[in-house]
Amino acid sequence: xxLVVVGSVALDSVRTxxxxxxxxxxxxxxxxxxxxxxxxxxxxxxxxxxxxxxxxTRLLAARQIxxxxxxxxxxxxxxxxxxxxxxxMNDRETLDVQLNVFDRFDPVLPEExxxxxxxxxxxxxxxxxxxxxxxxxxxxxxxxxxxxxYIRGAADELAELLRRIDGLVLNDSEAKLLTxxxxxxxxxxxxxxxxxxxVVIKKGEHGAMFFSQHETYVLPAFPTPNVVDPTGAGDSFGxxxxxxxxxxxxxxxKTLKKAMAYGTLxxxxxxxxxxxxxxxxxxxxxxxxxxxxxKRMLSF
Amino acid sequence: xxLVVVGSVALDSVRTxxxxxxxxxxxxxxxxxxxxxxxxxxxxxxxxxxxxxxxxTRLLAARQIxxxxxxxxxxxxxxxxxxxxxxxMNDRETLDVQLNVFDRFDPVLPEExxxxxxxxxxxxxxxxxxxxxxxxxxxxxxxxxxxxxYIRGAADELAELLRRIDGLVLNDSEAKLLTxxxxxxxxxxxxxxxxxxxVVIKKGEHGAMFFSQHETYVLPAFPTPNVVDPTGAGDSFGxxxxxxxxxxxxxxxKTLKKAMAYGTLxxxxxxxxxxxxxxxxxxxxxxxxxxxxxKRMLSF
Lengths: 300, 300
Fold this sequence. Notes:
Two copies of one chain form a homodimer.
Chain A: E1 3-6, E2 10-15, E3 20-26, H1 28-36, E4 42-48, H2 54-61, E5 65-66, E6 70-72, E7 79-85, E8 92-98, H3 111-114, E9 118-121, H4 126-135, E10 141-145, H5 148-153, H6 155-164, E11 167-171, H7 172-179, H8 184-193, E12 198-202, E13 208-211, E14 216-219, H9 233-248, H10 253-270, H11 277-281, H12 284-297
Helix pairs in contact in A: 1-9, 4-6, 7-8, 9-10, 10-12
């Protein structure tokens, strides 16, 4: 079952305690789409500027990622993000953001894409996320990500969005901010009571939590000695999760849990190199091999 | 198989964002012993002062905890700790410490206790921990805990201790401090290379990691909406883990992993109330029921 993702495509500059990269391929929708493409065809909807290297489009298209919805906007520049990781490689500072083409991004989905039944709204203003929902009326599964910027600055729109989606994916600090509750188990359920049927709280190196009416669980991150660049881990998590759900074509509790596990493993590969470098080296079979290790790790 | 624990018994004063308790039963060896007593008989070796309420000894003795090794030192006062939890209920500040009787604690183990084959050295100066090792020459399994104070202030003795024990249990921040490595997977193995056959890194609300020559794994904490007081969670973890190992009488990889799970669950009960209040309400069957839930949570 094909999957649509709407969100940012970016050129990232990343500083870690030991290495740096400038203007590498990044963006939430990029990482999401690439991770999801191990499981299912993906339609990527985003915008870039005239400075966008065509090789990046080719890299995406070489997988089963349809870039028809990736607009190259004349006269505009691509979104740029510069960030720096602290020595723990889990916390980071944003050093610079240039929204550029995203300053006025108003996605118009190609006709074929609007008929998609699996939809992921990566980080973006909730008003824009809702305009995408308006275009995809027939979607069976609508999942969104959000962030502190919109929790603080667009609370009403976010509240409306939460009533219109099936699932929300967010970070631990964002879940605390949104609910005012420091206990993540309570916070997860409070977010769920705002609308979505299920909520996923991402905890970075500590894994992810899942909340639905009848289920509460935690899956740890896959233990990785070699964290090179955590950028895109959360988005790869979302891509692995949604990709597997779309592939399976259902969202029963068992499939959702396995999707959480695939999300965890997609993220574990992403952090092993800068940008999409590690994901480009692997195949679905590598994810499946790591899945066997991960299952062994969690059985006793 | 009986189990010995040597460590602190204390009167704790605890401030949480919503509630406080003064002079309640605490101490690392206390929590450890109580959690372990669900699995096996425990010999508790520690010291208290004349101010020690006899009811606390009765509370321990009412379970299978032998308090012959709990000296009541004339003229001395019991160890007291006062701490305050931050709103996240994971980080805390120590407001006051009165070592009192522990200022010159030099444990002399009763003859019967020295023949024990399972030994846990709760937090304490490594030189003292080694004096206990000297008395228990026949132990099959010697596991110790340590803390930042000794990593910083008694590095040589700690290095010697590490070469003489089978396992070390420590917090994530302590593992980073001891190794200078911010990546916990690498840090765990670096600690292991300092001597112990296995290392357990406790991550508080994020669970625990295990390291041996051939194994690296993470188990998440049991998700608890109701964290009342995290004091003693790490010690209860140790007690549940060692208690199960002593009960089983072996330390093969499968038993160790299940022991890690029991430690996780013992801790999950401890945090649901102040002091030992929650552990006093439960039976082994409650741990086993939660174990079934925990296993279900981690299978997919």
